[in-house]
Amino acid sequence: MTTAEQHTAESPESSESSESSESSESPGSSIAFTATLVLLVGAALFGRRVFAGWFTDDGIRTWATMFVGVTVQALPFLVLGVLLSAALTAFVPASFFAKALPKHPALAVPVASASGVVLPGCECASVPVSAALMNRGVTPAAAIAFLLSAPAINPVVLASTAVAFPGQPKVVVARAVTSLAVSMILGWLWLLTGKGGSWLKMPKNRHAHDDPKFDVFRSAMLHDFLHAGGFLVVGAAAAATLNVVVPRAWLDHVAGNLLLSVVILGLLAVLLAICSEADAFVAASLTQFSLTARLAFMVVGPIVDVKLIALQTGTFGPKFAVRFAPATFVVALLASLLIGWWLF
């Protein structure tokens, strides 16, 4: 009895402390994100003397351009994803998703993959949206399928691919079919492993059901932006560093070997971390490579790259990212080889 009274007496304090820890999370994240951003932007703008012994002037300029370019390209779509995520959290009842998707998880995966066509954004947007879907009761396999398909088969990406490869509609078809197939395969593989629950850190719903909807929207938007934005900045810095360090001349020596060129362009897509709306133009410029190898570049880039791995690590945990990224990479390469052999 005394223990129960003690527990009830302590519970308000514990709830207050948990509330204070949650409320302090946003300022702490804000300070960390701002400090990281200021440090990296300062290095990009004023780091020539500091890094003069490591890189040439051209290398430093390339790093600064790449870092700013990746961040500027990705940030608007990250904001779009955060807004959609916050709107899903605040305004859409959980029952909607139960009705919209088939109840059987195996059938929910292809429906979620096909629904990725409605989100005109890059991979940065799909991570917070898929996290919000999990919070609203969608099975993780279906949310993962959406995460992979949304940045790869949306109308903006397919239109940019058609512009980058004029007169070659097979390239657009190959990209759409391959990306859709990869998203469904990964969703089904997640169901078959049986260990997804222990690998995935489920995003927490931080809001009570009776909170005002606009307060929930504002809080979720700020939290998700600060959380994902920090990882985006780190990922952009990693992509810029790898872009400077990795030499380009060796590409000419591997273009003649189909299997090797597919692997190399897949790895290049991971390292460059180009937004899915722009990667088709980069692929089109790599004329020394076959269409199959360039298809692999366009399929891999939107679903596994350095900044996306960083975003997934921060959102779903390192256990998820360390297993999911290699599996996605291998499935994407195999699917690109198969579809390329079929269509090209």
Core attributes:
16 helices, disordered N terminus, 344 residues, mainly alpha
Q: Which stretches of 5+ consecutive residues score pLDDT under 50?
A: 1-26
Number of domains: 1
* N-end to C-end Cα span: 76 Å
Helix and strand content put the structural class at: mainly alpha
**Which term fits the overall shape?**
globular
Radius of gyration: 22 Å
Mean pLDDT value = 76
Order of helices and strands: HHHHHHHHHHHHHHHH
Number of helices: 16
- The total count of strands amounts to 0
Indicate the proportion of strand residues: under 5%
User: What's the story with the biggest beta sheet?
Assistant: none
Q: What fraction, in percent, of the residue positions are helical?
A: over 70%
Q: Can you put this structure into words, describing what you see?
A:
The protein is an all-alpha fold and 344 residues long. The protein has one domain (2-343). The protein has 16 helices and no strands. The relative contact order is 0.12.
